[in-house]
Amino acid sequence: LLTIPQTAPSTGVDTTAAASDIAAAAPYDTGDDSLYSRLGGLYGISAAVDNLVDRLYVNQFGNANPKVAEFHEQQGHAGFKFLVTAWSIQETGGPAIYRGRDMRASHAHLNVTAREFDMVRTEIKTSLYQLNVPEREFDEFMAIIDSYEDMVVGG
Prior knowledge:
With 155 residues, this protein is mainly α. 62% of the residues lie in helices and 0% in strands. Helix 3 packs across helix 6, helix 3 packs across helix 8 and helix 8 packs antiparallel against helix 9. The protein is globular, with a radius of gyration of 15 Å.
């Protein structure tokens, strides 16, 4: 079972856990059958986003897009993690906490290509694999991601 250490630098809290452990231990699990709950609630989703965003910020292919590179240079890394976490929580059936712009508006200026979207999709899959997310939850989350492609690609 592959796990990735996820230590919050400011708190020193180790959030390392396999997906099954995350789901069993997360205090913000709604206790229902929502994808949010099955992914481990706040803690499970935060661990996956932490893993993902760290790689996206250093991904050479993604940063080859000058608009994406500029965003990564000017925007706060922690703030971006917060927005992606909030969006993921809401989209998976958790609390409606995302207060960012809709996907079309937030990506329009980036001129994202289909290939760049696929690169992000691949990085998302990698995060889910590294955290050993079960197949059912993996497929459901990727279906959510895929449903946004038309809003993200091409601006």
